[in-house]
Each structure stands twice: as structure tokens, then as C-alpha cells.
Amino acid sequence: MTINPFASLVGQQQAIELLTQAVRQNRVAPAYLFVGPDGVGRSLAARCFVELLFSAQTRNLASLQSRLRQNNHPDLWWVQPTYQYQGQRLTAAEAAEKKLKRKAPPVIRLEQVREITEFLGRPPLEAPRNMVVLEEAQTMAEPAANALLKTLEEPGQATLILIAPSPESVLPTLVSRCQRIPFFCLDAQSLTQVLTQTGHQEILRHQAVLSIAAGSPGSAIASYEQLQAIPANLLQDVTKAPASYRHALELAKKIAQDLDTEAQLWLVDYLQQSYWQQWQQPEIIHKLEQARKSLLYYAQPRLVWECTLIALFMNLNGCFKSGDL
To answer: What are the domain boundaries of the chain?
Structure first.
């Protein structure tokens, strides 16, 4: 039976062609680097590619698809960045489920790379080759990346897929051993198609969310979910100009108390869109960009927001005095 696992992947024709031709010509590379923005289909493409490779040696396609979706195929090892919490490794989804406050982003750890090496130490059980997928490969620290390099040099009967935003975000020694597969932002029509097919039509009514997504369906969905998770009264307050210095300080305190770092970083993106639509002042957007950098460098969040919101109040108050508003 002829199958097309890539039928669900929209707007990435070049990547689909490169991967399908590799299988047809029996020229599958030992390692690939899927590069492009978050949420445009890189992980989906990896899963489709694995399905295409594994389907040649299966009679029960439905069972194969189910096992791949659940990541319980014996010849597939799927790696995600993790947090370390009370002696456990938790993915971002698991940390969110436990409602943990996260001060730093998750990373791919050295012990995870060692598990990959152990997994590849045995031959495939059912498929023609072992497959390893590493999401957010750019989060590997240098020791983990160097350990992975040894595996890439001699992968054995296996293919590895590294997923990252750009070649520059990964160590050059890793990039040099991978075949690059490019992924791109979707145009408006393709973005609408994906959101409609996945049951997220309501996102199309939120222009700020679509602007943040910048052609990425996955980012649009994640952004909309984040929007829903932020208290409505807080969002309403912060999208207006602070009424006074005291109001700015109170609002900064509430943001720091109610939102974890990831949510605060999203809020910076949202406010850049919202503030630009309201006032179109580059100085305000620049100040928010400074806030993002400070949060990423683990500055004290309350202080970051105090400085940002006071600067917003002063900027707009100056506009009022000058008669601009």
C-alpha cells in the first residue's frame, strides 16, 4: 500500500521533496539538521519521515502510526529538553502539568545524550534502522554536544535528526556532520489552512497573536494558549498606560508574582504588538526589547518590570504634555 505521511505537513514542499527523494533513492543520510522557526512543522516532518522509513517493513500501518504518535516504537528515541526537579527530568509539558515555576528554559542534558548512545548500541528490532530525534538541539551545552559528536561520527545502523532554529544556533562541528533540511514561515493562506484543519479557527480573530506568530501555526497556538492562561484583569491592566508611578510599581509586582519567566517573556511579545498598535512609538518597543534581554539574563523580574512600566509612564506622560495625544 502506498502511503504519504507528509500529507498533513503544509507549506514545506522543499523539505518534503528532499526527504521523500532520500527514501526513494535509498540515500538516507546518517544525520539531518531540520532548521527553521518554531512551530512551522519541523517536528511533524521528523515524525512523517520516521513513518515513511519504518512503513517499508510493516504490515499494520495503523498500529505503526499509533506507536509513533505515542513514542513507544522500540527503534525510535525521541529527546526533548528537560528541567531538573527533585532528582527527576521533566519536559516542558510535564513541568507545566505540575504547575512548576520555571526560572530558566529546559535543556538537553549530558545524561540524555548518554542514553542516546546506549540506545544506538543495539541493532534495530523491527525497523530498517534506529531513529533518534532531538528537539531544540540548540539547548545542548558544550559537554552534551561534544558527547553527541562522537555518536554522529559513528552512528551505526541509525539516523539522527537534530531540530534547531538555525545552523548558527548549533555547534559547527555538529552542523558539518548533518544534511540540512530548511523549513520556512507559512504565508497567510497556509497559516489559515493549518489553524482551520487543527480546530483553532478562533485564533484568526486575534491579530496580536497572529502578529507574534509571524507565519508559524505552532507559535500561534502556543501564543493563544498563553493568552488564555494569563488572568484577564492583569492583561487588561498591562495593555493600558500606567496611570501613575505607583500604578506602574503595583503592576510590576503583580506581573512578577503571577507569571513565571516563560509567561513574562510571552507578555513582552504581546505588549510589543499591543503598544505599537496603540502608540506606534519605537522608544517603547525598544524598552520592551531591553526587558526581554534582562529577563533572559535572569535579572530580578520585578525590577525589570518596574523600570519598563515607569519608562512607559514617563514616555507617554511626556507625549501628553507635548500635545501629541
So the answer is: 5-184, 189-322
Query: How confident is the model over 294-314, as pLDDT tens digits?
Result: 998 889 999 999 999 999 999
CA–CA dist 299, 126 (Å, integer): 50
pLDDT (tens digit, 9 = 90+) per residue, 19-41? 999 999 999 999 999 999 999 99
Cα dihedral 55/60/66/71 (nearest 10) = -50
Looking at residue 85, what is its pLDDT?
87
Closest by CA to 127, choosing from 136, 135, 119, is 119
Angle at 195 between CA 191 and CA 198, to 5 degrees: 140
Cβ pair 255, 238 in contact under 8 A: yes
Q: Which cell goes with 67?
A: 506507536
Instruction: Give the helix/strand (H/E) hosting 258.
Output: helix 245-258
Q: What's the grid cell of residue 18?
A: 528532499
Q: What is the mean pLDDT of residues 140-161?
A: 93
- What's domain 5-184's architecture? 3-Layer(aba) Sandwich (3.40)
Ramachandran quadrant class, 132 (left: phi over 0; alpha: psi -120 to 50; beta: rest): beta
Q: At what angle do helices 301-322 and 261-279 cross, to 10 degrees?
A: 10
- Nearest to 219, CA basis, from 36, 51, 83: 36
- Report the C-alpha gap between 113 and 134 in whole angstroms: 10
Nearest to 270, CA basis, from 282, 285, 253, 248: 285
